[in-house]
Write a structure and sequence with these properties.
This protein is mostly helical. It folds into two domains: about 30-90 and about 130-170, no CATH class; about 180-325, no CATH class. It is built from twelve helices and no strands. It has helices at about 5-20, 25-55, 60-110, 110-155, 160-170, 175-215, 220-230, 235-250, 250-280, 285-305, 310-320, 330-340. The longest helix has about 50 residues, at about 60-110.
C-alpha cells in the first residue's frame, strides 16, 4: 500500500496534536463529563418542562423548582446522616476513655521529644486534611453552580438549543437528530420514574423492617438505601450493611431478624419490583446494565457508575430507533405479490 505525502503530513499533524493535547487530557475529561451531565439532566427535564408549559408554567420556574428540590433532598440526606456519624464518634470516644490508662502509661515511657514530634506531625496531618477537604468542597460547589447554569440555559433557551443543533449537525440530519432527541428524552423520563418507584419501594420496605425490629436510625438508613438504589444493587447492599451495624447495637436477635427481613425485601425487588417497573418503562437488558456498571466502575468510580444506567438506557433507545424495522417473510412477499 502506497502512502501519499498528504497522508504523511496528516499523520504527522495527528501525532503533534496528541503530544500537545496529552497534558490536557484530565481537564478535557472533566469538562466533557460536566457537559455530558448537563446534557443528560437537560434531556431528563425537558418533557416535564414541556408539559408544564402547556399549563402556562414558565420553563425557568420549573427548572429552578426541580433543582431546588434536588438540593433540598441532598441537604435532608446530610441531616439524616449526621446522627449516624454522631453515634460513631460517641462510640470512638468511649473506646478512647477505656484505653486511656494504657495510652497514658505508654506515653509516660516515651521521651518528651518523641511525644512533641508525634503530636506536631498529627496536627499537621489533620490541618492538611481539613484544607484539602475545604478545597474539594469549594470545587464541588463551583462545579454544581456551573452545572445548574448550563442546565438552566439548555432547557429554557430555545435559541441556544437551535444554535447547538445548527453548529454540530449538518442540515440534512437535523430533523432526524431532533426526532432521536425526543425519543431519548421520553425514554429517560420513563426510566427516571421507574427508578424513583424502585427507590421508594426500598425506602418504605427498609423503614418498616427497621421500625418493626427496633433498630436505631431505621428511617435514615432506609432513605440512604433508596437514594443509592439509583445505582442498581448498591442501595440494597449498603442499606443491609448499615442496618446490620445498627442492629448490632441492640441484640444478636435483632441482627438475625433484620438480615432475614431485608434479604426478603431485596429478593422481592430483584425478581418482582424491578422487572415490573422497568418492563413498563423501557426494556433494558440486565446483562447490559451489569456490564455498564463494571465498565463505569473501572473508568470513573462512583460517579461513572451513577451515570451507567442512564447511558445504557440512551444507547438502548438509540439502537431501537436506528435499526431497521424487521419484517416477517410473509410481509416481505406482499409487495412482490401486489406488483405481480
Amino acid at each position: 500500500m502506497q502512502i501519499t505525502t498528504r497522508t504523511w503530513f496528516a499523520l504527522f499533524g495527528l501525532g503533534v496534536a496528541l503530544i500537545l493535547v496529552g497534558p490536557l487530557l484530565p481537564l478535557i475529561r472533566s469538562v466533557a463529563l460536566l457537559l455530558f451531565l448537563a446534557a443528560l439532566l437537560s434531556i431528563l427535564l425537558y418533557p416535564l418542562v414541556v408539559r408544564l408549559e402547556r399549563r402556562r408554567v414558565p420553563a425557568g420556574l420549573t427548572v429552578a423548582g426541580v433543582l431546588t428540590l434536588i438540593v433540598a433532598l441532598f441537604l435532608f440526606l446530610g441531616v439524616q446522616v449526621l446522627p449516624l456519624f454522631a453515634t460513631a464518634l460517641n462510640g470512638l470516644s468511649r473506646l478512647l476513655v477505656a484505653i486511656a490508662p494504657r495510652i497514658e502509661a505508654g506515653v509516660v515511657q516515651l521521651p518528651l521529644t518523641t511525644v512533641i514530634n508525634t503530636v506536631s506531625s498529627l496536627i499537621g496531618d489533620v490541618s492538611s486534611a481539613l484544607i484539602g477537604a475545604a478545597a474539594r468542597v469549594g470545587a464541588l460547589f463551583w462545579t454544581l453552580f456551573v452545572l445548574v447554569v448550563l442546565v438552566f440555559t439548555l432547557v429554557t433557551s430555545s435559541a441556544t438549543r437551535l444554535w447547538l443543533l445548527r453548529f454540530f449537525v449538518p442540515p440534512a440530519y437535523q430533523a432526524r437528530v431532533v426526532s432521536l432527541g425526543g425519543a431519548v428524552s421520553e425514554g429517560l423520563s420513563r426510566w427516571f420514574l421507574a427508578q424513583l418507584a424502585i427507590s421508594g419501594y426500598y425506602v418504605v420496605g427498609y423503614s418498616i423492617a427497621g421500625l418493626v425490629v427496633g433498630i436505631p436510625f431505621a428511617v435514615p438508613i432506609a432513605v440512604i438505601s433508596g437514594l443509592l438504589e439509583f445505582i442498581p444493587y448498591l442501595g440494597g447492599l449498603v442499606g443491609l450493611g448499615l442496618a446490620v451495624l445498627s442492629a448490632a447495637t441492640v441484640s444478636e436477635s435483632a441482627v438475625i431478624w433484620i438480615i432475614i427481613a431485608e434479604t426478603i425485601i431485596g429478593m422481592v425487588a430483584v425478581y418482582v419490583v424491578v422487572p415490573y417497573f422497568f418492563a413498563r418503562a423501557i426494556k433494558v437488558p440486565p446483562g447490559a446494565v451489569l456490564l455498564g456498571l463494571y465498565i463505569g466502575g473501572l473508568v470513573g468510580g462512583f460517579f461513572a457508575a451513577l451515570l451507567t444506567v442512564p447511558v445504557v438506557t440512551i444507547i438502548t433507545i438509540l439502537i431501537r430507533e436506528l435499526r431497521p424495522v424487521s419484517t416477517t417473510p410473509r410481509e416481505a412477499d406482499e409487495p412482490t405479490q401486489r406488483l405481480s
